[in-house]
């Protein structure tokens, strides 16, 4: 109890993901108008950062990741022009997105970027982090699938991103696999090596129902920025539900600067009716969290299951065993086909 | 039988692996290895393997080019120094095979366009990128049957096989490969994605190739063309293997490939590096065969 009390008065910066991570859960099919409607409601509720675009971020429009209804620049420009206080942010995964696309996003109005690499590959991000800084953007180094690196490894990778110019380093639980202690030790290891002016963030997925608890653990260990999604609209079982997290922060005396009731209204009246399927912990999203698989693989695995006759759960478990990481969505159909052959289901594929 | 004598510039992993492949060739002979660090392991290993070495860069090689009859050089250094290396050696009549991203010469994927480059006696050809060598043959196998409006490739590389140069300049890899999918692969628009996976034991290089045909795809002819192309690549990369597909979904053709290396100097999982050295060697062999048969003659470029 004494630990939770110590968070009284702490400031937490909230970053909403429902218009970027949530695109995964919508098969990239959120239209520009709908995106503007959601973003203006979040802006009105005082959410300081709102991430938008294709679920895979800059460069995401592809056969590998699906095509959205509009270009990333169209989404950014439409949303950014309507914001009263919120900054619009984007995701850039080197190897998929490039500096040309970051420049275009900036020109369209993006002012913050998560530069994301797998948790052991930070050295693929120096160009992009440096370029984001040159553009004057709020720049985050985003270490994905953080459960696959130990605390010392995360600290070393975060230190690299800081050296390239990142203002903030995130522990990113892309698989929704981590438990509060896993988060705590990684954030603490980062806090011990990073410059005191470098912020730390946490991005959770709710696959084991730990989004809120993990975010609180991150703050206790020194994080000041938390990603979440209103109504949890995100990949897998969704992100940390932002309105729930805001309520918990308020109960604990932390300052988020958002209007809780407005956030609750946005969740209930706008986001939930948008959902194609109820984004929650179910058999397959729980499998993601249990097996440590990238949350975005969920709907791909369901499609591969339909085509091959191998169950989505079996496919996801096998992908976890093969240590597939974010970006390897092509390996979902490949793995399902190989499994179907081995099971004599080849005619189905 | 007479062999064409070669120089290798760059004494790192790629240069060392090239020694093995060139030594095995019936028409090529590795003679010189060029480095910049006298204490480098690569130069020591080259000496053990019977090559002459210099640690003074290309300038250390130039005085020996004519007396040692060097006709082909492989550059596995960096894009920054390649243009100068190429200019100096071309002036002495040495043909250059560029394994850097510099790409000052035409792009070469052996089963697609090597014959054209040899016929034109190009003095500098570029090997694009590992992902390019692994995927462009498949794109071309589709586009030679019917129009491809868009092709996209996904290369998964083991973390251990991706060097610091590529990591620090990942955008160049993306741009170079995307452009080559169009110019050599024959797609109207190309896109390349790279994923670096740190799993242990290291995963063998995987490549997925997606093509969107302009009209409804002819399943039989496209599948036949792809299988034939895979056979051609297997002649110089035996570990080039179709894992799944081609599968057809409307106008989308998907092909799932794996590239295991020969395990000469580089480990087998590093098929991405092996396909570069194998393609470069195959390219040199074609030029060498033509030179030996008296069909082409390398000409020194004019000094400027």
UniProtKB/TrEMBL annotation, chain A:
Mn(2+) binds at residues 21, 203, 205. The lineage of its organism: Bacteria, Pseudomonadati, Pseudomonadota, Betaproteobacteria, Rhodocyclales. It comes from Thauera linaloolentis (strain DSM 12138 / JCM 21573 / CCUG 41526 / CIP 105981 / IAM 15112 / NBRC 102519 / 47Lol). Residues 12-264 form the Pyruvate carboxyltransferase domain. Pfam families: DmpG_comm (PF07836), HMGL-like (PF00682). Belongs to the 4-hydroxy-2-oxovalerate aldolase family. The keyword DNA repair does not apply. This is 4-hydroxy-2-oxovalerate aldolase. It comes from the Bacteria. The active site is at 24 (proton acceptor). It catalyses: (S)-4-hydroxy-2-oxopentanoate = acetaldehyde + pyruvate. Keywords: Aromatic hydrocarbons catabolism, Lyase, Manganese, Metal-binding. The record marks 20 as: Transition state stabilizer.
From TrEMBL, chain B:
GO terms for molecular function: acetaldehyde dehydrogenase (acetylating) activity; NAD binding. It catalyses: acetaldehyde + NAD(+) + CoA = acetyl-CoA + NADH + H(+). Residues 5-120 form the Semialdehyde dehydrogenase NAD-binding domain. Keywords: Aromatic hydrocarbons catabolism, NAD, Oxidoreductase. It holds the Pfam family Semialdhyde_dh. The active site is at residue 130. NAD(+) binds at residues 11-14, 161-169, 272. InterPro entries: Acetaldehyde_dehydrogenase, Acetylaldehyde_DH_C, NAD(P)-bd_dom_sf, Semialdehyde_DH_NAD-bd. Its EC number is 1.2.1.10. Belongs to the acetaldehyde dehydrogenase family. This is Acetaldehyde dehydrogenase. It comes from Thauera linaloolentis (strain DSM 12138 / JCM 21573 / CCUG 41526 / CIP 105981 / IAM 15112 / NBRC 102519 / 47Lol).
């Amino acid at each position: 109890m004494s630990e939770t009390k110590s968070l009284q008065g702490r400031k937490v910066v909230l970053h909403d993901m429902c218009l970027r991570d949530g695109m995964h859960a919508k098969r990239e099919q959120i239209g520009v108008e709908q995106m503007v409607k959601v973003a203006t409601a979040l802006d009105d509720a005082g959410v300081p950062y709102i991430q938008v675009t294709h679920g895979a971020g800059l460069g995401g429009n592809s056969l590998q990741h699906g095509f959205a209804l509009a270009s990333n620049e169209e989404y950014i420009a439409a949303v950014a022009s309507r914001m009263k206080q919120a900054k619009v942010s984007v995701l850039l995964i080197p190897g998929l997105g490039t500096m040309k696309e970051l420049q275009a996003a900036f020109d369209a109005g993006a002012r913050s970027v998560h530069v994301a690499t797998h948790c052991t590959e930070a050295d693929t991000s120096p160009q992009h982090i440096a370029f984001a800084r040159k553009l004057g953007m709020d720049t985050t180094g985003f270490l994905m699938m953080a459960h696959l690196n130990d605390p010392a490894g995360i600290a070393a990778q975060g230190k690299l991103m800081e050296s390239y110019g990142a203002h903030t380093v995130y522990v990113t639980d892309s698989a929704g696999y981590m438990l509060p202690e896993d988060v705590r030790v990684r954030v603490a290891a980062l806090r011990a090596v990073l410059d005191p002016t470098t912020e730390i963030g946490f991005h959770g997925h709710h696959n084991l129902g730990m989004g809120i608890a993990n975010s609180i653990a991150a703050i206790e260990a020194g994080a000041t920025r938390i990603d979440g999604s209103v109504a949890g609209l995100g990949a897998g079982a969704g992100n940390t539900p932002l309105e729930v997290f805001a309520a918990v922060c308020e109960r604990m005396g932390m300052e988020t600067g958002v209007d809780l009731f407005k956030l609750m209204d946005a969740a209930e009246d706008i986001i939930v009716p948008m959902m194609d399927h109820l984004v929650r912990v179910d058999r397959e999203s729980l499998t993601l969290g249990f097996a440590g698989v990238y949350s975005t693989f969920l709907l791909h695995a369901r499609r591969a299951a339909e085509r091959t006759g191998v169950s989505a759960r079996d496919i996801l478990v096998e992908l976890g065993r093969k240590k597939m990481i974010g970006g390897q969505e092509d390996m979902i159909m490949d793995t399902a086909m190989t499994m179907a052959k081995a099971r004599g289901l080849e005619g189905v594929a | 039988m007479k062999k064409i004598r070669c120089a290798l510039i760059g004494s790192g992993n790629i240069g060392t692996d090239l020694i093995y492949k060139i030594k095995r060739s019936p028409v090529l002979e590795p003679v010189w290895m060029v480095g910049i660090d006298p204490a480098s392991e690569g130069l020591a290993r080259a000496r053990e393997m019977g090559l002459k070495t210099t640690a003074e860069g290309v300038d250390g090689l130039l005085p020996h080019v004519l007396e040692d009859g060097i006709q082909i050089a492989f550059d596995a250094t960096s894009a920054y120094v390649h243009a100068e290396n190429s200019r100096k050696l071309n002036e002495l009549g040495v043909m250059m095979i560029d394994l850097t991203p510099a790409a000052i010469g035409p792009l070469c994927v052996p089963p697609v366009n090597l014959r054209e480059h040899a016929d034109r006696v190009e003095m500098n050809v570029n090997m694009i990128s590992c992902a390019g060598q692994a995927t462009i043959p498949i794109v071309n196998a589709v586009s030679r049957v019917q129009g491809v409006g868009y092709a996209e490739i996904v290369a998964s590389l083991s973390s251990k096989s991706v060097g610091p140069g590529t990591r620090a300049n990942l955008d160049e890899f993306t741009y170079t490969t995307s452009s080559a999918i169009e110019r050599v692969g024959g797609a109207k628009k190309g896109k390349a994605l790279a994923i670096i996976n740190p799993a242990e034991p290291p995963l063998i290089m995987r490549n997925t190739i997606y093509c969107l045909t302009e009209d409804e795809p002819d399943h039989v002819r496209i599948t036949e063309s792809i299988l034939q192309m895979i056979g051609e690549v297997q002649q110089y990369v035996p570990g080039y293997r179709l894992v799944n597909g081609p599968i057809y979904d409307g106008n989308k053709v998907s092909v799932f490939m794996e590239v295991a290396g020969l395990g000469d100097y580089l480990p087998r999982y590093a098929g991405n590096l092996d396909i570069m050295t194998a393609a470069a060697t195959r390219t040199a062999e074609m030029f060498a065969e033509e030179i030996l048969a008296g069909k082409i003659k390398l000409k020194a470029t004019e000094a400027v």
